[in-house]
Design a protein that fits this description.
Uroporphyrinogen_deCOase (chains A, B); heme biosynthesis (chains A, B); homodimer; UROD/MetE-like_sf (chains A, B); decarboxylase (chains A, B); 10 helices; TIM Barrel; porphyrin biosynthesis (chains A, B)
C-alpha cells in the first residue's frame, strides 16, 4: 500500500481492489533495507540491531482509519461487518510483512519485533480471530525461511494492552513477549510459565519522576521479573517532553539493580 | 471547579490555590439535581433512574489535560512528580463527589454509578495508590450517610481497562462491578468469586454487526456471565454512527437468551 493512500483510506471491501495484489517488497521498501545495512555498519558491533514491523491488524486499522483514532471504530466496523474482507486484507498484509522481515534480516537485522499496537482495542474473541493467527503465521513463516539460511534470529511480539492474550502469546513461536505497564511482572511470569522470555514494562511516564524514584521503580520491576529470560525495557515509547537524563537514569538503574540481584543468587 | 477553567487547565501544584477550598455543591450543581427530579417524575416508575459521576482520578486528568488525551501524560506526570499535590487534589474531588452523589439520591436517583474512565492508563501500582482508595472512600462514605436515611441504593463501579484491579474492585464496597469488553465473562466470574454482581460487557462495535451476529454474541456473553447477579450492558458507550435498530436488537437478544437460559436451569 503506497503512503499516498493515507488521505484516501479504505472505506468498503471494494476498495481492496485498489491495493496491489502482488507487492515487490524489495522495490517498495528497499530503502529500509539500505538504512538497516548502513546502520549495522555504523554501530560496528557495539549493540545488536533490532528490525521491526507493525502487525497486520494494526496496519489494517491505520489503512481504514486513515490515521490515529481513540476508538478505531471504523476499522472495528469492518471486523464485525465484513469479516471475510477483513481476513483477505489481513492475509495480504501478512504476506508482505513476512517478506519485509526477511528482507530486514538479509540487510543485517539481528532480532525482529512485531508491534500489534492496537491489540487492546480488540476483545479476546476478536483478538483470537483477527490478530493472533496472523501473529503466529508471521513467526512460523519467517522462522521456516530462516532455517534454510541457518540464521538464528530471535523474535519479539508486543501486543499492547492484550492482557487477555498473554498465555496465547507465550505459545506463538516468538522467543520473547513484550509487555505494557498494565501487567504486573510476577503475574506475567506465572501466566507465561517460563515458556518465553519477557520484555518490558516500566510505565514511560515514570520517567517524569525524580531519579531516585525511577531507581526504586526499576528495582521492583527487576525483582518481579527476575534477571533471567528478561529484557529490561519501558512498557511503551517515550514522549517528546521526556528528559534524556532520566532515560539514562533508567538504564543505569537497570544495570545497578540487576547486578545486585545476580549477586544475591 | 468551574467549567470555565477547562481552557486554563492546572499546570503546577500552585494552581490548586485557584480552586474553591469549600464547594457549595447545591449551589454549583443544583441544576443536575433538578434535572434528576424532573426525569424521575417523567419516567413515572417505568424504569429505575441511575445517577452517576466521574471518579477522582478521571476528573483530575481532565483538569490537568484540559480535555481528552491519548496518553494522559500531563496528568500522569503529576502523579510521578507531585504525588502529595495529586493526593490533595484527589481528596478535594472525593469530598465533592460524595456530596454530589448524595444530592443525586436526595433528588431521586435509585442507583449510582462511578466512572473511572481513565483507569486503564494507570498501571497496577498507580491505580492502587491514586484511584482505588478514593473509589473505596466514595462508596464507604455515601453508604454511611445513606444509612441514616435508611435508603438502600446499589452502587456500581466502572474502571475502564483496569483488568489488573478486578479482584480489588470486587471488594470495594460496591454491589456491582462494570466491565469493559476486554475481559472474558467467565474469567471475570472466577476472579470476582461471586462477591459482587457484574455489569457489561459487549464490545460497543459489535453493534455494527448484522442482527443475527449480535444475537450470537449476546448469547455467548450471557452464557459466560450467567443470568444471576448480572446486569446486561455494553462494555462502553455508543458511537454516534451506530444504528438505534441494532441497539434494539441487542436488548431483544438479552431478553430472548436470558429467558432460554433461565428455562434450562
Amino acid at each position: 500500500m503506497d503512503v499516498q493512500m493515507v488521505p484516501d483510506p479504505l472505506k468498503e471491501p471494494e476498495d481492496l481492489q485498489r491495493l496491489q495484489p502482488k507487492v515487490d517488497v524489495e522495490k517498495e521498501l528497499g530503502y529500509v533495507f539500505k538504512a538497516i545495512t548502513l546502520t549495522r555498519h555504523k554501530i560496528d558491533g557495539k549493540v545488536p540491531l533490532i528490525g521491526f514491523t507493525g502487525a497486520p491488524w494494526t496496519l489494517m486499522s491505520y489503512m481504514i482509519e486513515g490515521g490515529g483514532s481513540n476508538t478505531h471504530s471504523k476499522a472495528k466496523r469492518w471486523l464485525y461487518r465484513h469479516p471475510q474482507a477483513s481476513h483477505m486484507l489481513l492475509k495480504m498484509l501478512t504476506d508482505v510483512i513476512v517478506e519485509y522481515l526477511l528482507g530486514q534480516v538479509a540487510a543485517g537485522a539481528q532480532a525482529l519485533q512485531v508491534f500489534e499496537s492496537h491489540a487492546g482495542i480488540l476483545g479476546p474473541v476478536e483478538f483470537n480471530e483477527f490478530s493472533l493467527p496472523y501473529l503466529r503465521d508471521i513467526a512460523r513463516r519467517v522462522k521456516e525461511k530462516l532455517k534454510e539460511t541457518a540464521k538464528d534470529i530471535p523474535m519479539i511480539v508486543f501486543a499492547k494492552d492484550a492482557h487477555y492474550g498473554l498465555e496465547d502469546l507465550s505459545q506463538s513461536h516468538y522467543e520473547v513477549v513484550g509487555l505494557d505497564w498494565t501487567v504486573d511482572p510476577r503475574a506475567a511470569r506465572e501466566r507465561t510459565g517460563g515458556k518465553v522470555s519477557l520484555q518490558g514494562n516500566m510505565d514511560p511516564c515514570a520517567l517524569y519522576a525524580p531519579k531516585e524514584h525511577i531507581s526504586e521503580i526499576v528495582k521492583k520491576m527487576l525483582e518481579g521479573f527476575g534477571t533471567r529470560g528478561y529484557i529490561a525495557n519501558l512498557g511503551h515509547g517515550l514522549y517528546p517532553d521526556m528528559d534524556p537524563e532520566n532515560v539514562g537514569a533508567f538504564v543505569e538503574a537497570v544495570h545497578t539493580h540487576s547486578k545486585q540481584i545476580n549477586k544475591r543468587m
